[in-house]
Amino acid sequence: VAYTYLAVPRRVRTILVTRGNAYLETLLDLDPRVALETIEPDGYVVPETPDDVPDLYVFDRFAPSETPVAPALLFRPSTAPWLPEPTGAEMTELSLSGLKSDHPLLQHVSLEDVVVESAAAVSPGEHEVIAGTADQPILLAGETPLRWAELTFDLGDSNFPLQAGFPIFLANAVTWLTS
Predict the structure, then answer these.
(1) For residue 165, what are the CA distances in angstroms to 73, 78, 108, 115, 160?
(2) Are the C-beta atoms of 82 and 57 separated by less than 8 Å?
């Protein structure tokens, strides 16, 4: 017989930077692992002490000019030097039907019925394209210097938040980005 003590799972201190997004606010707040704080983009500041650094940032239609000091999940971020470079033209009428990925972000997430009306066209560079193609990346990820994942579209320009896989995607993102 063997016995062990399991550590109590700690809550993931998450800062959502948005001008308002009911989907993200509700789902992140419902996740029992997430301790959520929501701020406006104008209220975003780089933490001054290690105690102020969150476990995770979620940026909605905003990206700080400098690389965040914690892992980040981004939804249609503004242009920033540390993110994939925009190529100009907007991508329209995109479908994610038939895409498959073994990446942890998409584990148990079906993208078959997801339709994206418009997305930012970016050059993936050396970053991993998880959904989409090298010419039309929809979901990208990087691990330098910290993990981050970017959806190149605004949730309002897709039906993704209405799909059963969206809460699973968010849970996967919290797990992968903070592991």
Answers:
(1) 17, 25, 7, 13, 8
(2) no
Tell me the residue type at 40: E
Q: Residue 25, Cα to own-chain centre: how many angstroms?
A: 13
- N residues, the chain: 179
Residue bearing tokens 């994939």: 84
pLDDT tens digits for range 134-174 = 788 889 999 878 999 999 999 999 999 999 999 999 999 99
- Write out pLDDT tens, residues 2-35: 888 776 578 999 999 999 999 999 999 999 999 9
Cis peptide bond upstream of 145, omega within 30? yes
Contact indicator for 112, 98 with CB cutoff of 8 Å? yes
pTM of the model: 0.90
Q: Is there a contact between 111 and 37 (Cβ–Cβ < 8 Å)?
A: no
Interhelix angle 22-30/165-178, rounded to 10 degrees, is 70
